[in-house]
Amino acid sequence: MSSYRNLRIKGFWFFNSCTLLLSFSACSPVTEHYVQVDHYLAQEKYSEADLLIEQNQEGYGKKNFVLYNLDRAMTLHLEGRYTESNRFLDVAEQQIDLLYTKSIPGETGAMLTNDNMLPYEGEDFEKAMINVISSLNYVYLGQLDEALVEMRKVDHKLNLLNDKYEQRNIYKEDAFARYLSGILYEAKGELNDAFIAYRKAFETYNDYWEDYGTVLLPTLPGDLLRVTEAIGLTEEFQFYRNKFPNVIWVSQNELDRQAELVFLSYDGLSPIKEDFFIDAPVPNGEGGFYFIRIALPRYINRLTDLVYTNIRLIGPQGEAASQRTFLVEDIEAIANKNLDDRIARITVKAIARATSKYLAAHKIRENTKENSLAKLLADLGTNIYSIVSEQSDKRSWRTLPGKIRMARLFVPPGPYTVSVDYYANAGGLIASKNYQVILKAGEKRFLSHRVLGHVLP
Fold this sequence. Notes:
By secondary structure, the chain is an alpha+beta fold. 54% of the residues lie in helices and 20% in strands. Helix 1 (2-25) packs parallel to helix 16 and helix 5 (65-79) packs antiparallel against helix 6 (82-101).
């Protein structure tokens, strides 16, 4: 009787243990608020989006401290609260650095549940975007030196990543960060550094075409010709002249007499992740098989009808310049390729996790096999737990745009209306926005705006 009672207690204990672990497995952040956040972003209600994220801080939980700070930083950046945005970016970056240098608690628990038990430390490209957004915050605050410090941080991070992966990773460089660095160095008058940054951007955009389908920026050949001519790099100038014989560029002397508008368009929504399940038989070491279920993440693109933006500078004498935006950073494509690049590593870890769960469940069943009720409860608990606890890590920086596009327009100094029109694929006008600016000679004025477009079914 005593033995029967003990076995029954074991069965209940195992069942309750599984239930407890299930509660731990539900450590992914609350995501329901993102529907409303996206709605506010679409309506350009950035303060409301930021407040909603702040009110949901508890739902993010401690494991997603980095994500909370990244989301706050993005909405504050869009709202124009640049100093506060940088404060949240700094906190996120410090936390990521801490996670990189310290052993992560919870690894054991994650092997019996899922990776949502671990603190989120960001995708590789998200870590670079922290410094890109921070750099732009400093640009809008008029602090170019600090903006360039953030760009140099990108270089340091990429070196660490490339060492970590021994150069076998796809995302080795960030072309947009390099190009932005070139523009900022030019704004500072540091043309040698500007050339190095533009040259690196040129090399990386060639890789971007192969990896992400992003074409070479139409402005970059002119940048290379202008800067190499200005600093007397005859050999390099001739190299680019031969490579781009039909390009017409603005010389440095002429540029110093003119003003420049750099417009950044944050387009659409970044992709989100969902589970992709695989059920497979695995040898059990006793001549038979057992079936495991593993969950892998995959990105779902949130496509919109927004295709391009047309920028016009209208002065007292009429339209002085116009340009269609060009793609500088396809976050959507980078995210997908980055995940594809590491899916093999994720799969190996998921199989190991499923095996750990199987071995734990097998031990529980062995301990209860002499009692039918206890075994029934153990079977039920372990089977339910094995299925429900299997989730992939679907976390990502969801408030990033899907794509970043740019326009660079050179005009004589003076007052202008910046007219910005957003167009859909069929040429239909989605949205318009106007800015009033007074551009000075030799100045590079940055403006940015975000439009989501209409999400396609």
